[in-house]
Amino acid sequence: MRAAIARSQISLLFAPRWHGFCRTDGVRRCGPTMWRGCELRRWRSSSSDLPEHRLLEMPKLSPTMTHGSIAQWMKKAGDEVTQGEQLAEIETDKASMSLDADDDFFLAKILKEDGAQDVPLGTPIAVVVTEQEHIGAFENYSPPSAEDTSKPQQDEQKPSASEEAPASNVAPKEARLPPSSDASSAPPKAAPPPKAKEEKTAAPPSASTAAYEDIAATKFQKVSAVRLLEAKQTIPHFYLHGECVIDKLLELRKEFNAKEQLKAEQTGTSAAKLSVNDFVIKASAAAMRDVPEVNSQWLGDRVRQFRRVDVSVAVMTPVGLITPIVFGADALRLSEISREVKSLAKLAKESKLRPEQFMGGTFTVSNLGMFGIRRFTAVVNPPQAAILAVGGSSKEILSVVDADFGSGQMQPAAVRVGNVLRVAISCDHRVVDGAVAARWMDAFQNYMTDPMSILL
After folding, report:
1. Over the chain, what is the mean pLDDT?
2. Which residues are catalytic?
């Protein structure tokens, strides 16, 4: 098999390192942990009634994954599957991920149907064959259980009849009782206490009359709940709020987008448009470069400070919030950040992100400005030390001060209206103290107020 790890989707047939033969049916299985440097192999069952086949097992799609849930099969039993086709959508502890086939085969039987929850790693989820005529042989197939696998060993250890002790050495059951256990000498048993009168309880309301509906939490929601609770309970948060006058930024963005639109019309290509969030990501990364103490994480007995700024960007998907990463954002141009964010957001909404594209990061940006939110605070995304919450911009009257216009006299300052963006940084106080966070906020505000300084 070709090593296709760099593809945009995880493949079910990455064929992890093989384990030994199963005792009961002789079928080799794909192991759940090793994913690289493997080959696609075929094998034949030792049982005469089963043709050549493979058991596909629940794969390990993230370092912390122990169970997976099958959100949906994209193929049904009997379908032909070609290399690169999406086979299923799996919910891991991190996200909902698409699994593709990396070889051609026929899906003979689905062992774990849509909605199967918390399937342990290595559990068979499907049977595949290479020949279409072999599909019917697996109509009633069920994989061997762990008990079936261990039964031959138990049978081998069971002593034979000839090895059993002579009957004269085995006392009958009555003889094993002590002398005091004679029925005549046994004290009379106490009468059982009277049964308490059962109280009638009202029957719970039926689903049709209840005033609520219980919706089962997805695997993603359960893991997010655990991580958020852990973050709030174990990380000492503190918050700093700031305001950025972004008039120059909006003018620069307008000018850039106009040039890109003209270029697109001339070349017949799509125009690359910068968003305010692209400037926020770039300004955050630049401020992290100026104040590297924020680009760190707490490790219990030491603080790890990173040399590269990898910015996680919160993206809303149908299954929940996920944070794909813009790697090396401090070294990227604004146009490169814009393209990367759009590409990652598209993959996230299609559940096609690879684990390395959303696991890690050294800082997070969460923007709710497009939803009309003026300001908010966010929860630190561990093990990172800080997260920036970005609200929407609004036109406001700027502070009025006196000014000397060169006449030698103080004149009333002109009142002007400006666009103000409100932000708040949440910090892990074990890593970042108030003075360091204030220095970071000052650098960030300067970059947002004078965006040309980001480009220098």
Report:
1. 77
2. 429, 433
